[in-house]
Specification:
heterodimer, A: mainly beta, 4-stranded antiparallel sheet, 11 strands, B: 7-stranded mixed sheet, 0% helix
Chain lengths: 103, 122
């Protein structure tokens, strides 16, 4: 089974900061990597699919990159509504999640 | 706009079978471009994909749950369902249904239901 290791598990940042979250696969997954945002009490929301494609309606401050085993989600300028938990996903496996909190 | 809604008992006794249904509106479960998934999230924990099913009835389950999971699709009702047998307290979670898109990179889960909490307790 492919393992997904997401880091960091938590992150404190301020509005306006640039933030990067990393997801590493235990073997190459080409670009089969998706990113989701989840707010408390809500269902996850798709942000990025295929490692770098922005889902319709998602602000352009979100971007994804990477291929093979190493992937990143970047938020270029944090907004108040971005404080949430973020998950990467490849097939059956989700990363452990990164909780983004206000500094 | 596609919408998904989970329904089913919120309380299940240990050793019994958990049964949930997802009703799809604004789209059709018979579309071959999509697959239909169940995901769960124990309280305070991360996400676990239980499995998914295509309109053909072909299903793929998580290896860790495979022996206890059955999914089915009901075209006439535009629904799909999950059955999880021999439940224990470890199966207590919010259960989500979601649509996956088969035809784009990453095969992402692009529409989700709001989730339903299922508690396993006597």
């Amino acid at each position: 089974d492919i393992q997904m290791t997401q880091s960091p598990s938590s992150l404190s940042a301020s509005v306006g900061d640039r933030v990067t979250i990393t997801c590493r696969a235990s073997q190459s997954i080409i670009n089969y990597l998706n990113w989701y945002q989840q707010k408390p009490g809500k269902a996850p929301k798709l942000l990025i699919y295929g490692a770098s494609s922005l889902q319709s309606g998602v602000p352009s401050r979100f971007s994804g990159s990477g291929s093979g085993t190493d992937f990143t989600l970047t938020i270029s300028s944090l907004q108040p509504e971005d404080f949430a938990t973020y998950y990467c996903q490849q097939s059956f496996t989700f990363g452990q999640g990164t909780k983004l909190e206000i500094k | 706009q596609v919408q998904l809604q989970e329904s089913g008992p919120g309380l299940v006794k240990p050793s019994e079978t958990l049964s949930l249904t997802c009703t799809v509106s604004g789209g059709s479960v018979s579309s071959g471009s999509y697959y239909w998934s169940w995901i769960r999230q124990p309280p305070g924990e991360g996400l676990e994909l239980i499995g998914y099913i295509y309109d053909s009835g072909s299903a793929n389950y998580s290896p860790s749950l495979k022996s206890r999971v059955t999914m089915s699709v009901h075209m006439s009702k535009n629904q799909f369902s999950l059955m999880l047998s021999s439940v224990t307290a470890a199966d207590t979670a919010v259960y989500y249904c979601a649509r996956g898109t088969s035809t784009i990179g990453g095969r992402p889960l692009d529409y989700w239901g709001q989730g339903t909490l299922v508690t396993v307790s006597s």
